[in-house]
Amino acid sequence: MGVRLIQISAVYFVIGVGFGLYMSMAHSYDFVGVHAHVNLLGWLSLAVIGTIYSIYPELAATKLAKTHFWLHNIALPVMMIGLFFLILGQESLVPVVATGGMVMVLAIVLFALNVLMNMKPRA
């Protein structure tokens, strides 16, 4: 699971950098929220979590890890696509963004619980 998360994070890195490049070339920073969240919750967070799961593979084997993986990877694109269109004026997508955000928080809480409950010091 660690390798898979790192691979997914690399895709989010490309997407985040792409948003940054577009904004700087167009001199339009409307999507800075999407850019920041894709880089933080996609690139950085998934890369760090993937590294933790690679160092502590016993954490990756838990139901908490599997649930976190799916919730994180469903919530982030739902939230970011919703936010993108919300910024473009689709006010009806506020509940989509809010739901994606709440699911993301749940995913992160599950990751934290997994670390707190199952990570043991190395000998």
Please tell me about this protein's structure.
This is Cytochrome-c oxidase. InterPro entries: Cyt_c_oxase-like_su1_sf. Keywords: Membrane, Transmembrane, Transmembrane helix. This protein has one domain. It is built from five helices and no strands.
Tell me the number of helical segments per DSSP (H or I, 4 or more residues long).
5
The counted number of beta strands is 0
- Which consecutive residue ranges, at least 5 long each, have pLDDT under 50? none
Order of helices and strands: HHHHH
Distance between the termini: 23 Å
| Global morphology | globular
Indicate the percent of residues in helices: over 70%
Nearest-integer average pLDDT:
96
Q: What kind of sheet is the major sheet?
A: none
The number of domains is 1
Query: Which structural class is indicated by helix and strand composition?
Result: mainly alpha
Q: How much of the sequence is in beta strands?
A: under 5%
- Rg measurement, Å: 16 Å
Keywords: Membrane, Transmembrane, Transmembrane helix
Protein name: Cytochrome-c oxidase
Transmembrane segments: 5-24, 36-56, 68-87, 93-117
Keywords:
mainly alpha, 123 residues
